[in-house]
Design goal:
Elements lengths: L17 H10 L3 E6 L6 H12 L4 E6 L8 H10 L12 E4 L8 H15 L10 E10 L3 E10 L2 E2 L3 E4 L2 E9 L8 E2 L4 E7 L8 E4 L3 H20 L9 H11 L3 E8 L2 H12 L2 E2 L2 E10 L4 H10 L1 E6 L5 H10 L3 E4 L2 H12 L6 E18 L3 E14 L3 E6 L2 E13 L2 E2 L2 E3 L3 E6 L10 E10 L5
Parallel strand pairs: 1-2, 2-3, 12-14, 12-15, 15-16
Antiparallel strand pairs: 4-5, 4-11, 5-10, 6-9, 7-8, 7-11, 8-10, 13-14, 17-18, 17-24, 18-22, 18-23, 19-20, 19-24, 20-21, 20-23
């Protein structure tokens, strides 16, 4: 209603998103634990309860899918009671609500229960002080640049405020709500998306408004030095490839595989990190020495060289200079867009069983300058070959702001109206892609070939 506003932070239920659930419990006032009436308590349910208890946050239970055949809310109550969540009707302290998200059944009662709990807790915040909050998510946007979603927890955040977030600083340049509507200020419990950061913030970082830009930069500088020192403690002697590690793991019983993870969004980074850190094969394990959001940078390559690590890019690519540095320094960068493939490769490396790989060889780059929709054919990209060569039948990866939006095969290559075997750097051409038409002007096509290469120990 008009008098009461509830801010929801939705966290995924998949087991890979443990860190996101833990962070959600830490920044909320009330946890709504959603349990399916037909599935009952799952391992992630127990974990979410533990996170809420650790954060000392009250829990309200929403038993969902009560409209489905086989739904049994009473069984869910018994299971949760065994975990310490006693329903109020059984003499306990926990409110339970039977709901159907699809039909909207019980939702009003659930929201009323949340407001009642908030009233009992007497939740208050001072809107007059400098803003303080927590980063929920961060990303790199093609148009806006570095973007962070902030939950303001106290004070009021305004356009132009200087701030410190993690090891970064900045000044609020723009601010929008969850509907993309511009705001001039945001008070307690208001989630906003801001720009104006000097570097990528990490989800879970504290956000503080300070008195000046100078103060913000001073605090961020000290934090950045501490962070760099911590990462360099993992240093240990030069680059390594995943294939080389696999061979050494089998022959020499190497204990740790050092990895640097970069991804498109913080949630993906955390999911990848959580998944690989769980991998243990006899006496070997993964050690993630650094992780973050955005394209792979020169700094990542230098850290990988110093710490004998490989770099994993999940839905992101290396910046051109970083890619050149990695090649010259022998630092291996591996790209993935499916978490199961990534985990499978790391598993094989830990077991010393990595098979010969298909080596990717980038042969050229093109820039999309026009797009043409051809009936019964699809979208054709009018391109300019900026470097290398383009060959018919090669593979193409579309990059938008260093993020991969398509990875597949070329369906056609033309010079003017004629089919072409190849097109050299400095010439224009038309390129069609298999089963993909969402091509934009400004897209960069990374053209590559794949050949099988047996693993070698360098």
């Amino acid at each position: 209603d008009d008098k009461n506003t509830i801010t929801f932070i939705d966290t995924p239920g998949h087991e890979a998103f443990t860190a996101m659930r833990a962070r959600g419990a830490q920044v909320t006032d009330i946890v709504i634990l959603v349990v399916a009436a037909d599935d009952g308590v799952m391992p992630q349910t127990r974990e979410a309860i533990d996170h809420a208890k650790a954060a000392d946050v009250p829990i309200i239970v929403a038993v969902n899918k009560i409209d489905k055949e086989g739904a049994n809310p009473e069984v869910v109550k018994k299971q949760l009671a065994e975990l310490g969540l006693q329903p109020e009707e059984w003499g306990g302290q926990t409110m339970f609500f039977n709901v159907s998200a699809i039909k909207g059944q019980g939702i009003t009662e659930l929201l009323e229960g949340v407001l009642l709990q908030a009233e009992v807790m007497e939740l208050k915040a001072d809107p007059e002080r400098r803003a303080k909050g927590t980063v929920i998510e961060s990303r790199q946007d093609r148009r806006k640049g570095l973007v962070a979603t902030i939950l303001v927890q106290s004070g009021t955040l305004r356009i132009g405020d200087p701030f410190v977030v993690g090891a970064e600083s900045g000044r609020v340049r723009s601010m929008v709500d969850e509907n993309g509507i511009s705001l001039k200020e945001a008070g307690p419990s208001v989630p906003v998306e801001i720009t104006g950061l000097n570097g990528i913030a990490e989800a879970g970082d504290d956000f503080y408004v300070v008195e000046s830009d100078v103060k913000a930069k001073q605090v961020a500088s000290v934090r950045a030095q501490k962070k760099q020192k911590k990462e360099l403690l993992a240093a240990g002697g030069g680059p390594i490839t995943l294939e080389e590690f696999a061979k050494r793991a089998a022959e020499e019983n190497i204990a740790e595989l050092n990895i640097i993870i970069k991804g498109d969004v913080q949630g993906s980074v955390e999911a990848v990190r959580s998944s690989v850190e769980k991998l243990v094969y006899e006496k070997v394990r993964v050690k993630v020495i650094s992780s973050g959001v955005g394209g792979i940078t020169e700094g990542d390559v230098k850290l990988a060289q110093a710490s004998k690590a490989i770099i994993i890019g999940f839905n992101v690519r290396a910046e051109p200079r970083a890619a050149r540095d990695a090649d010259s320094l022998g630092v291996q960068i591996r790209y993935y867009n499916v978490i199961y493939d990534l985990v499978d490769d790391v598993k094989k490396a830990l077991a010393g069983l990595l098979e010969p790989i298909k080596k990717e060889s980038i042969i050229g780059h093109v820039e999309v300058r026009e797009t043409f929709v051809i009936p019964k054919v699809g979208t054709i990209a009018g391109c300019y070959v900026t470097d290398g060569i383009v060959k018919r039948g090669a593979f193409v990866r579309i990059l938008r702001d260093n993020k991969v939006v398509f990875d597949g095969k070329m369906s056609s290559l033309k010079r003017f109206k004629d089919d072409a075997r190849e097109v050299q750097s400095g010439y224009e051409c038309g390129i069609g892609l298999e089963n993909y038409n969402d091509i934009k002007v400004g897209d960069i096509f990374e053209v590559y070939e794949i050949e099988e290469v047996a693993p070698t120990l360098k």
